[in-house]
Every structure is written in C-alpha cells, then in structure tokens.
Write a structure and sequence with these properties.
- The structure is a single chain.
- It contains twelve helices and 15 strands.
- It is of the alpha/beta class and 414 residues long.
- The protein folds into two domains: 214 residues, 3-Layer(aba) Sandwich (Rossmann fold); 143 residues, Rossmann fold, CATH 3.40.50.
- The strands form four sheets. The chain has a seven-stranded mixed beta sheet with strand order 3-2-1-4-5-12-13, sandwiched between helices. A four-stranded parallel beta sheet has the order 7-8-6-11, with helices on both faces.
- Helix 1 runs antiparallel to helix 4 and helix 1 packs parallel to helix 11.
- The longest helix is centred in the middle third of the chain and has 20 residues.
Length: 414
C-alpha cells in the first residue's frame, strides 16, 4: 500500500499549552484516517536536518496518553531556534528536508511555534512552491508574547497571563503585611509587546489595586515621570507595586536595562535587568525600601496554573490544522477569531503565512491610558476571558505527573 504520512515539530519558546496543540494534531490525524503514521521531528526543524524522529502514532496510542500530553508543559518534541537561510542563497538545507519528506512519504507538515517558527513555515512554503511540491505546510500558532498577527490571541498566552495575574496577587499579599514605605518592581517578559505585563492588571479585585502602575514597550518610558508617579503614589499608599515589561524603551528607542543586551540569530535583543535598573533608580532618588522581582521563565510552563480556555483552544487549533491540510490548504497558519466577548466565543480559520511571518502585533495605543502607566478597560475586557477555567492534573508524590521525555536527552537513540 502506498502510505501517506505526516510530520509535526515544535519550535521557539515553551508554553503551558503547546503540547495541547500537538495533542490536537495527533487527535486530528487519528480522526482523519488519511494518514498512516504521524512522525514527530525532535528539536524542531533541526530534527529533520539531523534525521531524528519519533513515531507519535505508536507513542501516543490512546486517550490516556493524549490527555496527559495535553497538560504537559513545554515541548514534548523539544525545540530549537534555528533560522533557515534564504533558499536563493543556499538551498542545501531545503533539498535535504524535502528529500526526507519524500523518504518518509510526508504529505503534510505541521510546525507549532511563534513568530520565528512562522518564518520557517514561510520559507518552506516558498521552496515547496518553487519545486511544485504537493506537501501541505501549515503553521500552528503559539507564543506567550501574544504578538502574532492575524489571530485574536495566541495559545500559551492565556496560561502565562493567568500565572502573571495569580503571582501578582500573591506578591501583593506578601507586600501589604509591612507597614513601611516600599516599592516592589515586577519585571515581566515582553521584548516588543506588553501583552503579558498588561495581564498583571487581572490581579486587581475589590481589595487589591496592585499593580499600581503598568509600563509597556508600546509607550516611551520616561525616568523622571516614573519617579514622579512613584512619589505621588507613596503619599497615599505604604506599598507601591509596579509591573514593567522587560522591553521598555526611552524616547530614543534605547532599552532600559541594567546590563548590555545581546542579539540571538533572529536579531532579537536578549534583555535582562529592566526591573533591576528601576530598582536602582528608586533607591538612588526616593530612598525607600525597594526590591525588584524578575519572573522570567517561570510564567512559560506553569501547567499547575494553566488556563482551561487556553488549553482547549490550543487543542482545537491543532485539530483544525489537520482539517486544513485535508482540504488542500498550504502556506498558511491556522487562526482563531473572537466572535463574541459576552459570552466569550471564537471561530477557527486560517490566514496566508506571508502576512504573518516576521510581523508583530502590539497593544493598540488606545488601550493604554494617556499617561502611559496603566491599561484601559478595553484591554482588561480583552484579557479577562483568556484566563478562565482550571486544568485538572494528576499528582504523584505531591507533584504533577507529565509525559516523560527521555528522547530529549543527548544520549537517546531515536
């Protein structure tokens, strides 16, 4: 029999929901009946270049394993941050990849990832068009940064936002117990877009108004105005809590950091120390008790605080990607559109990858207050539905049980 198979891989930064999308792809393939075997490439596109594959049809054989995969954080298949060259400059990697597809009789390739991963989808799609390949290439979105275009919000963001909101509320409880003047600065991931930092506002309730200020990359940061904001708030409060994106910049576009930023191979600045820089600024100019907290990677894989909404949407996007491939769609990313906010509802579709790869979605300026130090109700209303619902986990010896990943060890033979 002439088998028709497919392949899936994951790339970029981890999230609490990216394996739900992988589970969705696997589920969609089983329902489809069109593909005999689903292969998983280990460590993204590098898995193909290094010929490292898993037979996911055998490894995830039943609902029990599929459900455990859904709640497992980070990438079950591993990840990479590998930038493919332009095939017009060097097509050797493309020739090898498509020879691998032919060898394994791959008819559909699903790549789960963020903006840089969609760049890979675009390049593979362009090369496929050039050689007139009939392989369907579909991007499945994820990123805690929520900065992909042509989609209302990205899987992984809702769970990270839930973690940020929960952590901010707990920081507030920790801080409020001391009857001394203090400033707490919480640095949150967000190089170019402040979606995650904005989600800290979801911690506010009938007794908690923290964070008292929110500073985002979408608005130029003014150090003097920041100090004025803090001094004024300290007149009425003992404890001031600030949420700040790691990527805040001044009016000249320079990052506010405590250390020099370096760039990765995609040209992204690897930032560190915005919170620490502001801590020093408060300490030197206001002289109250001050500390900075860098949440850093903790928000990415906190499956114990995952959003059920986020996980179910991630799974549905994976399943929908398979439907698109069956329909002959290629060079596209699967999308979701919010059709209603009250009650919250979404619809699934797709968009051409060319309008998505290497683009970034920022928070609309009108969703940020005039002073640039807080969000407006419109942004709160956008964020609120995304963190709803709790995910049920299985525990053993007091900790969650996830899918084991021995295949990601360097000495593992696949």
């Amino acid at each position: 029999m002439n088998q028709s198979n497919c392949m899936v891989a994951q790339s970029g930064g981890p999230t609490a929901a990216i394996n739900a999308s992988l589970a969705g792809v696997i589920s969609g393939i089983k329902k489809s009946g069109k593909y005999d075997t689903c292969y998983g490439a280990i460590n993204g596109i590098l898995g193909i270049l290094n010929e490292r594959y898993l037979n996911l049809s055998q490894m995830i054989p039943d609902e029990k394993n599929l459900n455990r995969l859904k709640v497992t954080p980070a990438m079950y298949l591993g990840s990479c941050r590998h930038k493919l060259p332009d095939y017009k400059d060097d097509d050797s990697a493309y020739v090898f990849i498509f020879n691998q597809f032919a060898k394994l009789n791959i008819k559909a390739f699903f790549y789960i990832g963020g903006n840089d991963s969609m760049d890979t989808v675009l390049k593979l799609s362009d090369y496929a068009a050039k050689i007139k390949s009939d392989i369907r290439i579909i991007g499945v979105p994820k990123t805690i940064d929520n900065d992909l275009c042509m989609i209302d919000h990205t899987p992984g963001f809702g769970s990270a936002a839930k973690y940020i909101a929960s952590t901010m509320l707990e920081i507030a409880h920790d801080t409020f117990i001391y009857a001394v003047k203090s400033v707490t600065i919480v640095e949150i991931m967000g190089r170019d877009a402040g979606w995650l930092t904005a989600a800290s506002a979801l911690a506010r309730n009938d007794y908690n108004t923290a964070p008292h200020f929110i500073y985002l990359p979408e608005v130029a940061f003014d150090k003097e105005q920041f100090l004025t904001d803090i001094r004024n708030k300290l007149k009425t409060l003992n404890n001031v809590i600030v949420a700040v994106s790691e990527g805040i910049r001044d009016k000249n576009g320079d990052y506010i950091t405590a250390s020099k930023a370096v760039a990765d191979q995609f040209g992204h600045q690897q930032l560190s120390g915005a919170g620490k820089a502001l801590e020093f600024l408060v300490k030197e100019n206001i002289g109250v008790k001050v500390r900075s907290i860098e949440i850093n990677v903790l928000q990415r894989c906190a499956s114990h605080l995952a959003s059920a909404t986020d996980q179910s949407e991630a799974f549905a996007l994976g399943e929908h990607a398979v439907l698109l491939a069956e329909e002959g769609v290629t060079a596209s990313m699967v999308t979701l559109t919010r059709t209603s906010n009250t009650p919250y509802a979404v619809a699934y579709d797709h968009a051409p990858i060319r309008g998505i790869a290497n683009e970034a979605k920022s928070i609309p300026r009108e969703w940020i207050n005039a002073h640039g130090n807080d969000i407006r109700q419109e942004l709160y209303n956008y964020l609120y539905p995304l963190i709803q619902g709790e995910v049920s986990l299985t525990y053993q010896n007091g900790v969650p049980v996830y899918m084991p990943v021995p295949h990601l060890k360097p000495d593992h033979v696949s």
